């Protein structure tokens, strides 16, 4: 049944306005399938309320399935047994999480409100509006995957909340209607797991640090960077940007002997030597240069690879060859060179596998964060300094 619902329109507007509140933990607006163009959205779930906004008025449906597609200047809603309805935008909510099938026929299980509007004449924009803790349940679920421990999850939730606190204006300032994306531009968020037992564990872990953020000695929210594995030593932030007291190089034995501690990659030797010679202003046929490159060792993390007064950032080599980390040594293997590396990711801040080992050894979420972000403390969101 379709019914007028101007009061719901007003209530929804108030909800969106609350998302920008700074004094208390805000709701989150996250763009879904942000790296894709969506030409259709399918929704299913128990008693979903869909509000159609059109020309300052609104109508409401309560059904178990909807199809939304782009229309002329807006969207078109299809419901079985009803004529198609054109709308400026729609908002969907339900008492229980619901399913969304979006780009590439990918299905997600979502809590909260879903706002759908045109991205262009041919594509849709979907924004999930939900509480911070509900959002963090999805972030922890996606970012940590198989790594499971309540204290690890509680730490990751606080780290992710802190990251949001520092970055929540980025897309708004670009004129967008959402605060974050669902991919690595922000933090990975693919909704909730369908498994109710895992959801319950996630909820309990996120609640342990609910409303808390990490701040530095001045009370400002920190740059809460994290990565998969440090390889045994984290990287100082000044190798990527300016120094931060809480992003120092920390010896990290917890990240040793983990699934992603070590890696290897083989490259064509002559092509590699040619590229390295170009970077280091040397001759790829020079025997001394060839010996240096093919036997390069990095026993501890370094920022640069140096040769006879020339240097190149190891970060540049990593990015060029799509390596797992900047921490590697080189071996001559005949027609190839073998890069033997340690760690996975940029290496700054919290090592997720190292934090997992710490949790298994009995360390608390607070102790994990103090180890990887020295000099920081957890405070309520409202106590954080601007």
**Radius of gyration of CA atoms, rounded to a whole number:** 25 Å
SSE pattern: EHEEEEEEEEEEHHEHEEEHHEEHEEEHHE
How would a textbook summarize the main sheet? 12 strands, mixed
Count up the domains: 3
Secondary structure: number of strands:
21
Low-confidence stretches: 1-22
Assign a percent range to the helix content. 25-40%
Question: Structural class from helices and strands?
Answer: alpha+beta
How far the N terminus sits from the C terminus, by CA atoms, comes to 48 Å
Strand portion: 25-35%
The average pLDDT is 93
The number of helical elements comes to: 9
How would you describe this protein?
The chain is α+β, with helices and mostly antiparallel strands. It folds into 3 domains: 3-130, Tumour Suppressor Smad4 (Sandwich); 133-227 and 349-383, no CATH class; 262-342, no CATH class. It is built from 9 helices and 21 strands. It has helices at 6-18, 132-144, 150-167, 196-208, 269-280, 287-294, 314-321, 352-360, 365-372; strands at 3-4, 28-31, 41-54, 57-71, 74-78, 85-87, 89-93, 98-101, 107-110, 113-118, 124-130, 180-181, 212-215, 226-227, 262-268, 304-307, 310-313, 328-333, 336-342, 350-351, 377-380. The strands form 5 sheets. Strands 1, 2, 3, 4, 5, 6, 7, 8, 9, 10, 11 and 12 form a 12-stranded mixed beta sheet that branches. The protein has a 3-stranded antiparallel beta sheet with strand order 15-19-18. Helix 3 (150-167) crosses helix 4 (196-208). The protein is globular and about 80 Å long. Residues 1-22 have low confidence and may be disordered.
